[in-house]
Amino acid sequence: MHDTLQRLIESEFPAIQRRRLNTLQMNLGYLCNLACIHCHVAAGPKRTELMSRETIDAALELMERRRIATLDLTGGSPEMNPDFRALVSEARRLGVHVMDRLNPTIMNEPGYEWVGPFLAEHRVEVVASLPCYQEDNVDAQRGFGVFRRSIDALRTLNGLGYGALGSGLVLNLVYNPVGSALPPDQAALEADYRRHLGDAFGISFNHLFALANMPIKRFGSMLVSKGRFDEYMTLLKSSHRDANLDSVMCRDLISVDWQGYVYDCDFNQMLGIPLGGSPRPRTHLRDLLDQDLEGRPIAVADHCFGCTAGQGSSCGGALS
Could you tell me how far CA 286 lies from the centroid of its own chain? Predict the structure, then answer.
């Protein structure tokens, strides 16, 4: 795999600072039942990295002490961490809103039949990957048969009340471009998803999040291999909008890796860029129990243009 960090680190991206910490995004490990070509984590079935219970307990202590409002769980497939249910249950007891970035096909795997009912019981917001409403495009990006398995899982979630008006069970879908292009207009694309998935499969959902592909890890390596890395970076930079800077997710979020080390965002985590870009030893969750990050600088590099290009892109979809 081609490492793209050295192509990104020298950057003219605008300086930005932190606001009050609101969201704790935790990567529970790189183990996943899929190995998607756009995955910026390079997750897959052969990965062994999983967050320990000790680190999870440190995160829970931080949530309680710092009054964190939202816990955003990601992976890999976060449900494949053996302590996933314990973490969610305790976070909900603390009154924390929990989001699960769900790869829907995990619900079809033997031994994971509990996922849907558990998420519904604890009223977890589901953010489910479905990079297109067309079968061929999804299978090209994520593997043969993934579209149909994802549709089955979404139907199961609908049957549990997810996406139903007034249920309070939120189901959001995530779109990623198949190749090296920016996402289309999120509102128009959401309407297309809603019409196609409703007409063809009877599926309902709350919102669609349109995310740009980041030029790092597996996707970045693919761009280098095809000689398209510079072309994609030119697209991102030429599409930058200053208006998106105020809404980028890193202003009120920190990203935690499977070992408990902290970064400004999930993408910086994958590149190994430390919190604030500090050359000091890496910051751990435990170091933040008595620290206030508000006003501190955020480490930036050229991949950050992926969040500010066009309509913008964040873990919550378009910014404008």
Answer: 23
- Cβ atoms of 116 and 107 closer than 8 Å: yes
Residue pLDDT, tens place only, 217-239: 888 988 999 999 999 999 999 99
Give all strands (DSSP E) within 120-240, no chain letters.
125-129, 171-175, 207-210
- Quote the pLDDT of residue 137: 82
Which residue from 246, 239, 257 is spatially nearest to 50, judged by alpha carbons?
257
DSSP character at residue 149: H
pTM of the model: 0.94
Residue 189: both structure tokens together: 């694309």
Cis peptide before 316 (omega within 30 of 0): no
Is-contact 176 213, C-beta < 8 A?
Answer: yes
Query: What's the CA gap between 92 and 289, in Å, rounded?
Result: 20
Residue 115 in tokens: 């996922």
Residue 304 has a pLDDT of 97
Of 175, 105, 106, 178, the closest CA to residue 141 belongs to 178
Which homologous superfamily is 5-308 in? Aldolase class I (3.20.20.70)
* Distance, CA of 124 to chain centre: 15
Q: What residues does each domain of the chain span?
A: 5-308
pLDDT in tens, 105-121: 999 999 999 999 999 99
Distance CA 59, CA 57 (A): 5
Tens of pLDDT, residues 4-23:
899 999 999 999 999 999 99
pLDDT higher than 90, residue 132: no
What does the alpha-carbon distance between residue 83 and residue 258 come to, in Å, rounded to a whole number? Answer: 12
